[in-house]
Amino acid sequence: MPQRPAIVLVHGFWGGAAHWAGVIKELHKRGYHDLHAVENPLTSLADDAERTRKMVKQIHGPVILVGHSYGGAVITEMGDLPNVKGLVYVAAFAPDAGESPGGISQAKPPEAFPNIAPDSDGYLWIKQDKFHESFCQDLPEADALVMAVTQKAPLASTFGDNVTAPAWKNKPVWYQVSIHDRMINPENEEMMSARMNPKRVVHLAASHASLASHPEEIADLIDEAATETGY
């Protein structure tokens, strides 16, 4: 039996690698033991793509890249590496060449846009008292509190960084749409997934934090990507 591929998990804005906790536990239970969750600085798309690229280059063998939220822009930008065999997008941005997450969001703003506030240093935060309703309304209040307090704010300028050469044009793609997403307009998720001609699109009655509220279904999609790419 061929060896299972490595899985590299890429977080988005307002969260770090620990947002993948439930998915990591579920994948490990299914026999995926080569698991990696990159911790990106969220300072620019170039910085985040390079950090993720360095991690993938350390892996000898096939890789499935998984991006949540802005992490989808990261895997789109750097996912052309030869050992990357598939891309999985979890309620994620998948910009085309010349597009940015900010530009996509401005065209169809998400419901929770008013709950994002800049600080005096140029970082964007979700207001703590609005985090639960904005980011993860399908999680318990206590879990949302931890996410709100530990949120990882991006530099505001990162929203405007354009993708150069989208990896999804040359790699197999799987996509999960969160029907009740308040951080990325679900219509944008439908648009981005449709134009990539994905192998599968999964719709979940989930918040933006589907990776935390539906870890089994997300692991199912990653498992399918790993299996269908021949590993």
Automatic annotation (TrEMBL):
Pfam families: Abhydrolase_6. The keyword Chaperone does not apply. Keywords: Hydrolase. Residues 7-220 form the AB hydrolase-1 domain. One of its GO terms (molecular function) is hydrolase activity. It comes from the Bacteria. This is Alpha/beta hydrolase.
